[in-house]
Structure formats: C-alpha cells, structure tokens
Amino acid sequence: MAQAFAPILKANGGGVFAQINSVASLKGFPDSATYCASKAAAYSITQALRELLSQQDTLVLSVHPGPIATDMGDAAGLTEVAQPPALVADGIIKALKAGDFHVFPDSVAKQMGDAYKSFAQNVVEVRSS
Q1: What homologous superfamily is domain 16-124 in, according to CATH?
Q2: Which of 54, 78, 65, 60 is nearest to 105 (CA)?
Q3: Cα distance between residue 58 and residue 15, in whole Å
Q4: d(Cα 58, Cα 68) in Å, to the nearest integer?
Q5: Half-sphere CA count of 20, side-chain side, radius 13 A
Q6: What's the CA gap between 102 and 124, in Å, rounded?
Q7: Of the four listed, 27, 35, 54, 64, which is most buried by Cβ atoms within 10 Å?
Q8: 60: helix, coil or strand?
C-alpha cells in the first residue's frame, strides 16, 4: 500500500501514512502466533517507512491498538474486553497534533506503550541517518 500511495502523497506535498499495527506487533501471544509475527513484520516495515517517507515530508504513524470492538475482535473472543473503535481515530488525531510516531489508543495499548516507551525512544525512534 505504501508503494502505491507514497508517490501520490509526495505529489500532494507530503501528507500522512497511518499504518494499523497492533499490540501484537510488540508481544507474541500463544493463541495467535502467526498474527503476531505478521504484525511484527508490518511494524518493522513501518519503522523503515518512517525514515524513507520523511524525505518527502510524509508523516508516518504506527498505530498499535489493543482489543477493539470489531468483527475480528469478536471472532477472537475479545468482545468482553474490547474498546470502541473511536478510540483509534481519536488516538490518530492526537498523534498528528503532537507529532508522535507511535499511537497507543486504548487502555491495553497504553499499558503496553508505557512499558515499551524507553525502548522506542532509545532504539526505534532514533533516526539512522
């Protein structure tokens, strides 16, 4: 998707590319190991896109929701703990205003984000160039 939209974003002066990752990109869960692995790979790509697309003034967001009230959450048996999808949209807006790369929009995500914060600031968010 980034490959298709990056030229369009560039032609329009930059813009925003928001990648929906997951808390599962940060921690493996036994019942969903393949999902976690695919989300971890997506997160790695998002980190690279952040640096690559910054060259064309495109802001990249890495969004890491926890259990959200969706059909997928219901199918995974997370209905009881799932939170409203509006939290994800609100989190993206807040991140845009603050200039944040990581978005942890719900209570589960915020707990994981707090634990991950030091690593993110000292390793992930340090630009390689």
Answers
A1: NAD(P)-binding Rossmann-like Domain (3.40.50.720)
A2: 65
A3: 5
A4: 27
A5: 7
A6: 10
A7: 64
A8: strand
Q: Bridge-partner residues for 126, per DSSP?
A: none
Tell which residue, 124, 122, 105, has the closest CA to residue 45: 124
For residue 32, what is the DSSP state? G
Q: Residue 37 corresponds to which tokens in the numbers above?
A: 């692995």
70 φ, ψ (degrees, to nearest 5): -135, 175
Q: pLDDT by residue (tens digit) across 39-93? A: 999 999 999 999 999 999 999 999 999 999 999 888 888 888 889 999 999 999 9
The larger pLDDT score, comparing residue 123 to residue 50, is at 50
| pTM for the full predicted model | 0.89
Could you tell me the CA-to-CA distances from 105 to 20, 56, 69, 83, 98 in Å, in that order?
11, 27, 13, 10, 14
Look at the block and give the residue holding tokens 């634990």.
115
Strand partners, 60: 17
DSSP code for 128: -
